Amino acid sequence: MATTNKVKTIGVLTSGGDAPGMNAAIRAAVRRGLQKGVQMKGILKGYDGLMNEEIITETQAPDIAALVEFIAKSLVDEPSEVKVAVKADGTMDRAAMATITNPDDLNAVEAALQLKDETGCEVVVVTMGPPPAEGMLRELMARGADRGVLVSGREFGGSDTFATSQILAAAVNKIGVGPEDIVFCGRQAIDGDTAQVGPQIAEKLHLPQVTYVTEIKKDGNSLTVKRQLEDGYMELKVQTPCLLTCIKELNTPRYMSVSGIFECYDKPLEVFDYNALKDDPLIETDTIGLKGSPTNVYKSFAPPVKGAGMKVEDAAQLVGILNDKHLI
């Protein structure tokens, strides 16, 4: 093993084989490597746990028991502050932001993986984004997904929810939807918080849909689904193929496993660009990208920073302060 100052050990095992035993720093480091498109290679040497994110020399490495070496060449730490940049045309500067999986999408992936555990079905993860989004798909394959599809092309840039759903629906069409298939989506993304893309995909694919799903029971081609409402729940039955949008109450997403991290780069990943999807009826120059987006960002800004709070000793002091400010 050749080592330089740019070769860093990214993790050690702190308890048994799977990632729940890996500490947060290790998981974060592995995630950084996958997001940067760095192929993580490793060797499992035992079981103890010793070092964390230190440069290991060739002579030291054989002496470190229980070391899971995730070696990433030229891997640098993430900046401590991530700034959201908006271009002059109102679209986000994706290159200025870290590529992560939306939290609700992790619940959707977990629902698919649980179905795979029960039935042995195939799980295909799909995302639309710039090339670095491949690392996010690799992370999901490390969690257990079988293959990934990255929808990426300059023609898709600047898409709002309508145009995004056009493109993703075309991608799902290309992958194919069988009679027992389920399209799992997260409730909403954490940038726009619109919760529109999933339902729009269902409409364009002519699939029945259930949103805000908190429980799923499958019986053949039929699903019994519990849907969260503002003041309660409703139970629905829906036939496959269908689309479900998932929320955090549905499940607890699993971590990447050590074996999954080793294997994720051996799993297939396709890239669907404009040429791959252009023959789908949903893909027209006036229905995708910035030109095909009925909405765009007028203005984006950081909210004002709030002042420091005030600690009061008792209710009498609080009443006095409110009275002085003529609030009571």
Short summary of the structure?
The protein has 328 residues and is of the alpha/beta class.
What is this structure's SSE topology?
Elements: E1 7-9, H1 24-35, E2 71-73, H2 103-119, E3 124-128, H3 134-143, E4 147-151, H4 161-175, E5 182-186, H5 197-205, E6 209-219, E7 222-229, E8 232-239, E9 242-246, H6 258-263, E10 269-272, H7 274-277, H8 315-324
Parallel strand pairs: 3-4, 4-10, 5-9, 6-9
Antiparallel strand pairs: 1-2, 6-7, 7-8
Helix pairs in contact: 1-3, 4-5
Structure explained in plain terms:
- The structure is a single chain.
- With 328 residues, the chain is of the alpha/beta class.
- Helix content is 25%, strand content 17%.
- It contains 8 helices and 10 strands.
- The protein has helices spanning 24-35, 103-119, 134-143, 161-175, 197-205, 258-263, 274-277, 315-324, and strands at 7-9, 71-73, 124-128, 147-151, 182-186, 209-219, 222-229, 232-239, 242-246, 269-272.
- A 5-stranded mixed beta sheet has the order 5-9-6-7-8. A 3-stranded parallel beta sheet has the order 3-4-10, with helices on both faces. A two-stranded antiparallel sheet has the order 1-2.
- Strand 7 (222-229) and strand 8 (232-239) form a beta hairpin.
- Helix 4 (161-175) packs across helix 5.
- The radius of gyration is 23 Å and the shape is globular.
- The N and C termini lie far apart (72 Å).
- Mean pLDDT is 76; it is low at 1-23 and 38-82.
